[in-house]
Specification:
The complex is a heterodimer of chains A (115) and B (117).
Chain A (H helix, E strand, L loop, with lengths): L3 E3 L3 E4 L5 E7 L5 E8 L3 E8 L6 E2 L6 E7 L2 E6 L8 E8 L10 E2 L3 E5 L1
Parallel strand pairs in A: 2-11
Antiparallel strand pairs in A: 1-3, 3-8, 4-5, 4-9, 5-6, 7-8, 9-10, 9-11
Chain B lengths: L2 E3 L4 E5 L4 E3 L2 E3 L5 E8 L6 E7 L7 E2 L2 E6 L4 E6 L8 E9 L9 E2 L3 E6 L1
Parallel strand pairs in B: 2-12
Antiparallel strand pairs in B: 1-4, 3-9, 5-6, 5-10, 7-8, 8-9, 10-11, 10-12
Classes of the chains: A mainly beta (115), B mainly beta (117).
């Protein structure tokens, strides 16, 4: 079974703190993604990576950065957390090759609250 | 840019009955994939069903089936014999089949389905 894990289910941080959200997958997937989920807005892509040290901006990258030093790990970094970054963050991974059977597998999510 | 629209924020159904969740999308591409994902309360998002755009036959997975109308750009999900465990938020998602690099999903805003006994 594919397993995507995220370092925390719940996280509370203060405004201005640097926040790290970690995601690890165990299926040797090339692609990894970070989404943000907000009520009434669905999921929006923050960043994705298709290889180690490679990254691409998604729809809402402002205020975020990412790091992929190892294939299995993809980190989302909030350089200076703000209250409008309070949200649910979902990590996903998939194989590189584009087919309909290349589904994305999701982690359980991290609910981040910034006070 | 592609967009996905789910016009029903909430739906409800009784156990054993059938419910249909709507999804429309907008794209200029001819080759793409469509998905329905399920997110149960406080649980992980999982794939329910997938459809290739160039296949006219509607996908079916047990009690879940889709009505794919390519010309109308419509991709609805039908859940037959609804069960309490079907209660969840359902997301319709689009992914381009073009390109070699990993391509992210484009999601609708979701439909919350409640199931009553």
């Amino acid at each position: 079974d594919v397993k995507v894990t995220q370092s925390s289910r719940y996280l509370v941080k203060r405004t201005g703190e640097k926040v790290f959200l970690e995601c690890v997958q165990d299926m040797d997937h090339e692609n990894m993604f970070w989404y943000r989920q907000d009520p009434g807005l669905g999921l929006r892509l923050i960043y994705f990576s298709y290889d180690v040290k490679m990254k691409e901006k998604g729809d809402i990258p402002e205020g975020y950065s990412v790091s992929r030093e190892k294939k299995e790990r993809f980190s989302l970094i909030l350089e200076s957390a703000s209250t409008n970054q309070t949200s649910m963050y979902l990590c996903a991974s998939s194989l590189f090759r584009q087919t309909v059977y290349n589904e994305q597998f999701f982690g359980p999510g991290t609910r981040l609250t910034v006070l | 840019a592609q967009t996905v629209t789910q016009s029903q924020p909430e739906m409800s159904v009784q156990e054993a009955e059938t419910v249909t969740l709507s999804c429309t999308y907008d794209t200029s591409e001819s080759d793409y994939y469509l998905f329905w994902y399920k997110q149960p309360p406080s649980r992980q998002m999982i794939l329910v069903i997938r459809q290739e755009a160039y296949k006219q036959q509607n996908a079916t997975e047990n009690r879940f089936s889709v009505n794919f109308q390519k010309a109308a750009k419509s991709f609805s999900l039908k859940i037959s014999d609804s069960q309490l465990g079907d209660a969840a938020m359902y997301f319709c998602a689009y992914r381009s089949a073009l390109g070699q690099a990993g391509t992210a999903l484009i999601f609708g805003k979701g439909t919350t389905l409640s199931v009553s006994s």
